[in-house]
Amino acid sequence: MSAEAGAPAGESLYRKEPKVYPRDVHGRYARLRRIAVLVLLGMYYILPWINWGGHQSVLFDLPGRKFYIFGLTFWPQDFIYLALLLIAAGLTLFFFTALAGRLWCGYACPQTVWTEVFLWMEKWVEGDRNKRMKLDKAPWTANKIWRKSLKQFLWVSFALWTGFTFVGFFTPIREFGQNILAASIGPWETFWWIFYSFATYGNAGFLREQVCKYMCPYARFQSAMFDRDTLIISYDLERGEPRGGRRKTADKAELGLGDCIDCTLCVQVCPTGIDIRDGLQTECIACAACVDVCDQVMDKMGYERGLVRYTTENALEHKASRVLRPRVVIYGVLLAAILGSTLWSMTHRTPLRADLLRDRNQLYRELPDGRIENVYTLKLVNMTDAAQRYVISIPGHENLTWTVSPEPTLEAEQVGRYSFTIQAPRDFAAGSVEIDVRFEAESNPGIAVDHKTRMLMPINGGGR
Questions:
Q1: Looking at the domain assignment, is residue 10 inside a domain?
Q2: Residue 197 · residue 158 · CB < 8 Å
Q3: Are 323 and 374 members of one domain?
């Protein structure tokens, strides 16, 4: 499209989004939001520094192909747990969205959490909403340069610490810190440190609500999980309209007005800059700041609270509303089943893994004494935090013998490969026979696994 066809010459076809200056608000939902921010960021920044079972409490050791999570060690073979946890995370999102809308966005989303912290720093340096707006419009003076510089310093420092902590979940954080001081960090560590720091700085410092409004896909498909019984933040149109200013002592009935005094505070506190009175919008992140500030206004005016509140579309229309309904129950049952089975499996798994692979270069070989031998490659994984020696047996087949080389002894969290052979009398069987091989820790019989394999023998007693 040409400038002449769509807009006057010299005028941009795209409107620049005005900066949103959220007003500070206090109330029950604001307290919950601050608690959520402190708990989530506390976990993020503190967990890497806590040792658990001889390792960092949470460490994803990609080079060593081991994940340490609160004393449990996970290997690449445990990928199924990651898949189950991702499914559980999706069901959790569906469950809470169907129940009470975008709770994730308002209280737990990383974008919301880090933006809240960046806003705290901005408010501490530049002042409240009016002072920040006035400062941005003011010419560049020594005071403005000082305040803007201090804010940027805090933002950059916090972003760098965030990136440093992120890398600390993949590289032991103390080791990473020492490498930084010694200027000996690797290229990938440097890349992810700078990348995550820059992403935090850009998203929480500048993009802010633009991420929620234009970049986040969740706002686009949330309607598929909503119904008329979903709790959402709503403006009571019937009670609030017609809106208009009035004195506290004025009789709203005589003025022909509703409860809304059109103070626009609900707009001023909104982190995405929307007007909740326009109805449900994709930009609403359900932070409930408008609920807190509206309740305060209603208290001052002597009106009943709840002009803006958590409610359902059916309740606003004076229809019966159900919180527990089929989709909520189904999501809840599936979520409980997956989480319960996953946690039980993770805490009751046998800390030993054994893989027995046949030598594909030969079916079997005949020994000088007439016995038939099969050759295997044995892989043992010691998933405990102590050294183990393993005993091998083939239950139910006393006429079989076997050898393993070298001795199956492993240090803590060590992987070992061995040459394993099974010998059988010629009359043991004909063709292919399935057998069970048992691997057991000598010091702890409770650590044992059974592995099925096949023993190949000559057909009809013939040789190879």
A1: no
A2: no
A3: no
d(C-alpha 85, C-alpha 105), whole Å: 20
List of the chain residues with pLDDT < 50: 1-4, 462-464
Q: What is this structure's pTM?
A: 0.84
Q: How far is CA 291 from CA 36, 247, 304, in A?
A: 18, 22, 13
**What domain count does the chain have?**
2
Q: In angstroms, how far is CA 195 from the centroid of its own chain?
A: 19
What pLDDT, on the 0 to 100 scale, is given for residue 2? 43
Q: What is the enclosing helix (H) or strand (E) of 190?
A: helix 187-202
Can you spell out the DSSP letters for 313-371? Answer: HHHHTT----SS-HHHHHHHHHHHHHHHHHHHHHHH--SEEEEEEE-TT-S-EE-TTS-
Same domain, 193 and 325: yes
Q: What pLDDT sits at residue 63?
A: 87
Burial (Cβ within 10 Å: 0-12, 13-18, ≥19) of residue 199: middle
Do residues 56 and 160 share a domain?
yes
* The predicted structure's pLDDT at residue 8: 56
| 369 and 237 together in one domain | no
Task: Say yes or no: 326 and 455 in one domain.
Answer: no
CA pair distance 326, 334, nearest whole angstrom = 12
Helix axes 110-126, 142-167, angle to 10 degrees: 150
Where does a domain end: 293, 314, 349?
Answer: 349
Q: What span, in angstroms and rounded, lies between the C-alpha atoms of 204 and 118?
A: 6
Q: Cα–Cα distances in Å, from 321 out to 180, 225, 309?
A: 57, 16, 15
**Is residue 90 one of the residues assigned to a domain?**
yes
pLDDT at 464: 40
Domain membership flag for residue 425: yes
Q: Classify residue 8: in a domain, yes or no.
A: no
